[in-house]
Amino acid sequence: MGSIRTKLVLIMMLLILALMTVVGSFLINGVGNFYIDQFYDEMGRTFSQEFIRQLQDTTDEGAEEMKERLMAKAGLGIDIAGRNVYVLDSGGAVLAGSDQTAAVSTTTNLLAALNGQVGQDSSITSPYMDLAVPITGDNASYIVYVLDNKSTVNDLTANVMDIIVQSLIMGMGICLVLSVLLAQILITPLRALSKGTRRVAAGDFSEKLEVTSRDEIGALTRDFNDMSRVLRDTLAAAENERNKLSTLFLHMTDGVVAFDAQGRVIHANPAAVQMLGCDPAKSGGFDEMFGQETQLPQVLDLESPEFVETEKTVGDRSLELFMAPFTTEGSPAGVIVVIHDVTEQRKSEQTRREFVANVSHELRTPLTNVKSYAETMADAAGDLPPELQQQFLSVIINEADRMTRIVQDLLTLSKFDYGKMEMNISRFSFAGAIRDVAEAVAMDARNHGHTLTVDVPDDLPEVNGDRDRIQQVLINVVSNAIKYTPNGGRIELLAGVSGEMVWAKVRDNGIGIPEKDLPRLFERFYRVDKARSRESGGTGLGLSIASEILRQHKGEIAIDSVYGKGTTVTVTLPAADSQA
């Protein structure tokens, strides 16, 4: 069916049709039953016991005389259309009747009369009404048979049917008009509701429907307006939350990947793409990305707040994975994987372990030496020659000085790490600082037979900084050049300007540094030649301290070396005139 108007009109039509059908059926049945009851009541009054005795007395006079007596009896005359009276013999043959041309069929009532009983059964479905009464005289027996073909009933029924049909047509016409009007009354607010529903579905909550009645449709309209308002507020709140979550999801540093229950990627934020080194949406799903770490069904079977924690290595990244299921209507709907990049944390842990091991090792060696020499002196007290005893004491003092330098360097680095290193900032001549460093190391260089040359321009710009710390860096670099250059080598101390920066270079032709060791030179306690470094009294912290000092001054230190040929160390600082 189509619209509500069509449905309502059809329902009303069917209703009036059903009503008229029921009423017509009752009327027609009522007319039929009325005439049947009237026929048999009339027959009952006519064939009284006295009238039957009168008929019995006329059996000797013949069938015609009995017919005439019957015709003269009120109610049995031929004035009623379709009703006839017959006199039959005991075998059922017609002897006389009001209709001489009609033949009498054997009926149920006639058979009952042939058997000596009064036949007076009736049925509304039968096309006739009849009565068969056996009349037995002294010398003959007859059957009086009254037959009515219901022509009067049928005519009346036809008239009633015509009336019903006319009433039905008129009722349908009235019903059609009324149903159209009723449908229009109902459809108008429903159309407004339908239009409002489409508008709300499109996201337009600006218009409020007018309530035009106080009936159920009016109540529905008010409820719709309330629903629209609540839905608008709910959607606004949901959109606000979605925007917050989207912003958080987009900019959070942790990676997040969501999978459905089949392991397909639903969403992944940029951090996850960066950490995994690929776009999860273009991958094969959960099994391809994390199947080696855990299985999807294992995570889906977890109950909140349970989760699976595991790790994954992607290239040089160490990733920590937290996997937990999410549900929809109580059933597992998928898995969310939160990814933490713990690469730096793992490196820090490794560095911390190496640092502790290095500190322990660096301090254990001088402590062992101090203890050994002290025990030897204690065990041989008074027996050692003064010269040997003095040598032992010198070793103890040197090892104590070495431990002191290690502790001081560690304290210096610790102050840098926690931002507690105090700097005496001033403007000073960078050229003068370089020349002072050259004078400070000149004797050490001569002791090793090195040639130390200094090439520093007089117009080298000044710098802002802690002069003592800058000189400490330069002395450390030049001292390394002296230590790791074989005796008789050449060491150059150069300086210059590059844009807004000044630089100082220390170049030697010493043993050089292997290429594999260059990236680790500024790590704490790292030494290229550990045995030789310890022999020269190095702690492995000098370059780390130098790097921190220059970083505090917004400068840099770079090392360029060819193994076996020499090393060049460049220290760069901002010129004073370029600084605010």
TrEMBL record:
Enzyme class: transferase
CC terms in the record's Gene Ontology section: membrane
Tree of life domain: Bacteria
Record domain HAMP: where: 184-236
EC number: 2.7.13.3
Membrane-spanning segments: 168-190
Reactions listed under catalytic activity: ATP + protein L-histidine = ADP + protein N-phospho-L-histidine
SUPFAM superfamilies associated with the record: ATPase domain of HSP90 chaperone/DNA topoisomerase II/histidine kinase (SSF55874), HAMP domain-like (SSF158472), Homodimeric domain of signal transducing histidine kinase (SSF47384), PYP-like sensor domain (PAS domain) (SSF55785)
Name of the featured protein: histidine kinase
GO biological process, one term: osmosensory signaling via phosphorelay pathway
One Pfam short name: HAMP
Chief place of localization: membrane
Membrane topology, from the record: Multi-pass membrane protein
Gene Ontology terms for molecular function: ATP binding; phosphorelay response regulator activity; phosphorelay sensor kinase activity; protein kinase activator activity
Positions of the Histidine kinase domain: 358-577
Stored PROSITE patterns: HAMP, HIS_KIN, PAS
Cell compartments where the protein resides: Membrane
Domain PAS: 241-277
Organism: Candidatus Avoscillospira avistercoris
Keyword annotations from UniProtKB, A to Z: ATP-binding, Kinase, Membrane, Nucleotide-binding, Phosphoprotein, Transferase, Transmembrane, Transmembrane helix, Two-component regulatory system
